[in-house]
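$ fold --in a.seq
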Amino acid sequence: MENNASKHRVISKRIIVFSILFLILATSLFYFVLPKFLSPPLRIDPVPSGTYVVPWMQPNPSISVLKTYQSNPYGPPPFNVDSVMANSLKLNMTFNITVSSGPRVIPSTVYLGHDEDYLYVGGEFRGMGLNPNNDPNTTLANYMSIFLDVDDNGTLSFPEAGSQIVVLVYNDTWTTNGLYEDLLWTDYNKVLQRASWVRAEDYTFPKAPAGITLASGFAEYDNPTGTLTFIIARCLRYPVMDKINALQMQPGERWVMGFVLELGFGSDGESMSNNVDGWPRTIYPFLSSDSSWWPKLAIDLSNSTA
C-alpha cells in the first residue's frame, strides 16, 4: 500500500510538472508564435524608376540641440540647414506665390531624410518674406505642407496622411514660433466634386490632439534676406492614430508613396489661403482626389544603408 501511495505521489508530481511546462509552452505559443502567423505580412514595395529615395540620416546637431539656441539672449547662431541635413535628399525648386503687391519668387530647397522612427523634413525658402496678410494687430503664419498618398494608388481616400509646419514670423532679425499639424485627406465628395485636407484636431471621431504625428521642430527667420528655414521630425508611425493617419510604417518595411509640397501664407487665422504655390504644382484648393500625377517617395526601413 505504501509503495502504491508513493507511486501515486510521483505520478501526481509529474502531472503537475507537465501541466506547468504545457502552460508555459502554450503561453509562449500564444504571445510569440501565433502573432507572427496572424499578423499581416510586411509591406515591401518595389521602387519604380524615377522614385525619390529618402536616405538614412539624422540631423546633426539634433533638433533638440537646435531648440536650445532659442534660449540664447543674444539670438541663435546661424542655422545652416544644408549642414544640419548633410547626406539628405535635396530637392531644389522655385515657388511663385501671388500676393497683393505682385508675384513673390522664392528659390527653395527641401531636404528629406529618415531613421527608423522619423521622417526629417528641412526647408530653406529664400526671400519668402513676411506674410502679406499681416496687420498691425495680427501676425499670420507662413507655412509649408507635405502631403502623402500613403497607399500609392493614385486616388486619395480616407485615411491618408500629411504634415504641416506653421511659423509665426515677426518683424525682427530672427524669430521662431513653430506649430506642427497633422493633415488628413477627407473623403472625396462626388456631388460637390471636391475633396479637402483637414487638421487632425478638427476631425471629431475619434478626437485627436493637434500635431501628434510631428515629434519636434525648429524654425528660424532672417529679416534682412526674408529667408525662412526650418526642420521637423515627422513620426513614421503613431498607432493611436491608425484610424485617421495611414502612415504607420513597421520596422523592416519599404513604402513607396505619392507626395507633393506646398508653400504659402495663412489668412484670417487659417493655415491656408489663396497665397500658395506647390511642387511640382499646387493642389490647393483640393478640387480633385486624383494623385496619380504626384511624384513618388520611397522610405526603406528594411535597409539601413538605403
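$ fold --in b.seq
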Amino acid sequence: MKVEGIVSLFDVGPDGLWKFLTEDKNQIQWTWGEIACHLFGDGNAKYKLNAMYIEFENVASPGDPVTAPSYDADEGVEYYEALAASPARDFLRVPLLASPQKGVVGGYETKVNFNQLTFIAQSSGTAGVHGKAFSDGANSTVFGLALVAAPVWGDRTQDLVFGRRYYATAKQVPKRASSQVGVSWVERFVQAG
C-alpha cells in the first residue's frame, strides 16, 4: 500500500471564493500507523483525521522568506509544542470545514469504490496556539501544514500527526488583510509499485 498526497493552498477572499495559489506533495509521518491501528483495529472514531495545523512565521517585512525546518517522518506534536519558545513562529490548530470527500484515483475506477480522501480547512482567528499574532499587520507568512487526528479537542497533547508539508520560499503565502488561507489536502491510498 502506498499513501501519497497533494496539498494545495488557496486565498479565500471575503466573498468566500477560493483562488488557487500553489500545491506540493506531503510527507506521511510514522504516527499515521498509530492512527490507522486505532481506526481499523479498535474502531475508535476519535482518531479520525479532523484537524489541520497551519504553521506561520511573523517576518520583519512583507515578502521576507521563511526558512522551513528540516523534519523527519518520526516527528510529531512535540515539534509544535516547542514552537512556544520561538520568538516568531506559531501555528493555528483548526478543525476541518466538513467531513472529507471520498473519491477514486484515476485508473482504479473498476477496482474500488473509493481510495482517495480530500480534507478541507482554512485559517481562522488572530493568534496562534502559543499566542503569536496571525495577521497581515504582523507580516504572518504561512509556510507549513500538518493533517492531524485530534481525539480530544480540548487536549492537543494527544494529537497525532498524519502528514506534514513545508513550502519553498516561492510558494509561501502571506496573510492578507481581507482574506484567509484555505487548504485542500488530497490523500491517495494506492498499490505500491
